[in-house]
Amino acid sequence: MPGGHDPDGEYEALRALYPWLPHPACGPGWHGLVEKVCESLVLLLPPQQLRELAVLEIGEAAGRLRIRFQGAGGFEAQIRALLREAEQASCRICQQCGAPGQRARRGGWWATLCDEHARQGIWL
Ligand SMILES: [Zn+2]
Prior knowledge:
Elements (H helix, E strand, L loop, with lengths): L6 H11 L13 H14 L2 H6 L1 E8 L2 E7 L5 H15 L11 E5 L2 E5 L1 H6 L4
Antiparallel strand pairs: 1-2, 3-4
Helix pairs in contact: 2-4
The structure holds zinc ion.
């Protein structure tokens, strides 16, 4: 991403819209994905259920986006399907910058990175 990109500020804007979001432990490249998940949750859940939903963790596990939640009521299967989709999408998006990327094991760690970030060998 070009200069002026501010992942923390971007995320705070997202949390202003979705106050139930925990602070993310995933790379800034996936914030767009997280935003899509939030939008889908708001569309899927009635307001009462949305209030009861607790998003416990937004993180990364083995190079994939991982979101854990509880309190989904009768919507658990739908939420799981939605999160599975985001997880699969995260395997093709650089976790650092959001460019198209590939999930691979590097130096003992799984990470999904674009060519440039893979070359730099740095990520979270
Ligand atoms: Zn990248």
